[in-house]
Design a protein that fits this description.
Length: 185
């Protein structure tokens, strides 16, 4: 079975690729969780994040934005001592701040999923070249819009990876069995 080259090196990456990566996600909370995880991945490999994903879910209250938004200095200290996650203060504080930004959007009547998918009206954007970018004008615009709403750790490279992961951009290799698949949650 032909799949993207990056997914051939580890069974966990292979399972993530085959079952999740690029499948359209329309659930606001799950989109937010994935954006947070992509922020933690910055400067590291995605495999590092995948191996700690359950630890992240435990540490960040199941990525419940209402609970995470109430985290305070003591919670940051607890998270900095948690070996089950990536212990980077700036990323931890950004996740807490992003929970608050997510809730502020909701309080203004702006659904996170509608906002995100509304920025990609022709989604999924299908890459038929096999050349995967690090960022695009679309991820730059999305990053700018997220930052305007108070989100942090959402530069255009992180946002591009997030858009790939949640199915807004189909960057599966054209020969990959997942290229052009439909579906979503």
């Amino acid at each position: 079975m032909s799949r993207c080259r990056w997914a051939q090196t580890d069974p966990l990456l292979r399972a993530y690729h085959d079952q999740e990566w690029g499948v359209p996600v329309h659930d606001s909370r799950m989109l937010w969780e994935m954006l947070c995880l992509e922020g933690f991945q910055a400067g590291l490999s995605w495999l590092v994040v995948l191996r700690r994903r359950e630890g992240f879910r435990r540490a960040f209250a199941g990525f419940d934005p209402e609970r995470v938004a109430r985290f305070e200095a003591g919670d940051v200290a607890r998270l900095m001592a948690d070996p089950g996650i990536i212990r980077a203060r700036a990323k931890i504080e950004a996740t807490i701040g992003n929970a608050r930004a997510y809730l502020a959007m909701r309080e203004r009547g702006e659904d996170f999923a509608a906002f995100a998918w509304g920025m990609v009206p022709d989604a999924p954007v299908r890459n038929t070249t096999g050349v995967v970018l690090a960022q695009s004008p679309l991820s730059q615009a999305m990053a700018k819009a997220l930052k305007a709403r108070g989100f942090r750790f959402v530069g255009p490279v992180i946002v591009y990876a997030w858009m790939q992961a949640v199915g807004m951009i189909d960057d599966h290799d054209p020969a990959c069995f997942c290229h052009d698949r439909q579906g979503g949650s």
